[in-house]
Amino acid sequence: MPSKELRLSDKAALPFKTTNKARRQQLHIKQKQARDVLRRADRFARKKEEAKNPKLREQRLRENVPQTLESKRKWDDVQDEPEDGGLGVAFNVERLKRRKLAEEQDLAGDDEDLSSHGDAEESDRDSMLDEDEDMGTHSEADDEVDDLEPPEDPDAENALPTKSQLRSATAKIRQRASSPPARSTTSTNLSLAPAALSKKFPTLFLPPDEKPPMPKILVTTSINSTLHHEAEVLVNLLPNSKYVRRSSHRYGHKFSVREIAAFAAKREYTTLAVLEEDMKKPSGLVVVHLPVGPTFHFTITNWYEGKAIPGHGRPTSHIPELILNNFTTPLGLLTAHLFRSMYPSTPELQGRQVVTLHNQRDFIFLRKHRYVFREKREMEKSVVGADGKEMKGAEGIRAGLQELGPRLTLKLRRVDKGIQRASGQEWEWRGKTDRVRTKFQL
User: For residue 31, how far is the Cα from the chain centroid?
Assistant: First the structure.
């Protein structure tokens, strides 16, 4: 006859099988309670040990690193920038440039240390005649030079000092300036575009000294579309844009995207945006960079107008500011430069409006807000910078946001070469070519 005391099995299964459903539920509850008791006992025992030895808690917290998207993200192993621009290669452009710069600085530092060590040896040989006069004096500089002396080894008479000794000695002699804090990984640095990518798309990657042209955008829809109101919402989102309906008459000429692009380029438009429809809802967005391309194909999901957002505000006609987040790969920088070309470089700050394009797992979340600066409440925290420290001069200030709309999510599907007669014939990049789900292209 089995005992009444319930024991927890090693394989976390039920103590014994039964066909009674009510009995199985009771056994499951008792087993869960037994596990909770064991976990609580382990937790309190660990707490007592950490109270006696605080280093155990520090070690546990140091090893208990949570899994995040960035830690699971897979990158391609790239040593140098690809010659074709690397649109199909997933690597962090900023991280690659930092690694190259660090390697160059290390090589330059090693050469300088070796040259300074050679000069020190020559000066020692020239001053050997005055050795007897200086035997009675000893200073801190002599202690620093003593670090450069080779270790005493009876087998090697002419042994040279190691590289670690050279570096430690030079660090003591000259004080190096502390490196600046690391740049925030959220913001997008548009000046780090690969050289091959800049040559491939010269109209998108402008030189630093050249002022970008004023954007002029032509917005239209697919043939026989009913998204006239949604196109007007897109016009309010994009400054200096105009909506032109495509003919839906049965005897009218159906203009192609290539013909519309040629029409728009002659009238000094810089971008053509075509809103696509599916089941009378926005399903896609085709953006053509004029006059020669490339053509970007996006899919649209989660389209919400401003009136559908709780607590929304009314947008004004001011030119908004633009924020681009997490565009780190070559394809991400190309996409970021496309959105940059669609907004003027000089926003109207008195409108206090900002458009945010946040990339996360290759989904681009578009939001439009109005911000206001107010005094910090007692229960609120202070504003911190990219280094996690409080910003000086903003201790008692907080920023309030009010969403204006629209709210939508974009996903890049394809980048075509130029402006094609039939889309998809020749492409620069196409999605769904990599089967690794943790490798992101933007």
Answer: 45
DSSP track, 100-152: HHHHHHHHHHHHHHHHHHHHHHHHHHHTGGGTTTTTT---HHHHHHHTTSPP-
Exposure string of 182-211, with b = 16+ CB inside 10 Å and e = fewer, is eeeeeebbeebbbeebbebbeebbbeeeee
C-alpha to C-alpha distances, 298 to 285, 408, 430, nearest whole angstrom:
5, 12, 11
Element (H, E) at 189: none
Output Rg (C-alpha) for the chain, integer angstroms: 32
Separation between Cα atoms, residue 295 and residue 65, nearest integer Å: 42
* Model pLDDT, residue 270: 94
Helix (H, G, I), strand (E, B) or coil at 312: coil
d(CA 411, CA 75): 20
Residue 176: predicted pLDDT: 37
pLDDT digits (tens, 9 = 90+) for 28-85: 888 888 889 999 999 999 999 999 999 999 999 888 888 877 778 888 888 888 888 8
- Tell me the per-residue pLDDT of 129-169, one tens digit each, with 9 for 90 and over: 344 444 444 444 444 434 434 444 444 434 444 545 545 55
* Bridge-based pairing state of the strands 241-243 and 217-221: parallel
Distance CA 178, CA 289 (A): 43
Q: What is the dihedral of CA 342, 348, 353, 359, to 10 degrees?
A: 30
Chunked into runs of 10 residues, the chain (442 residues) has average pLDDT values of 51 62 87 89 93 92 83 83 83 83 76 59 48 45 42 42 52 40 60 84 86 92 90 94 84 85 93 93 93 91 92 92 91 92 92 93 94 87 80 83 93 89 76 80 86
Give the amino acid at 237: L
Distances (CA, A) of 134 to 129, 138, 264, 432: 10, 8, 85, 75
**Is residue 260 a contact partner of residue 220, using CB atoms and an 8 Å limit?**
yes
With H, G, I as helix, E, B as strand and everything else as coil, classify residue 284.
strand
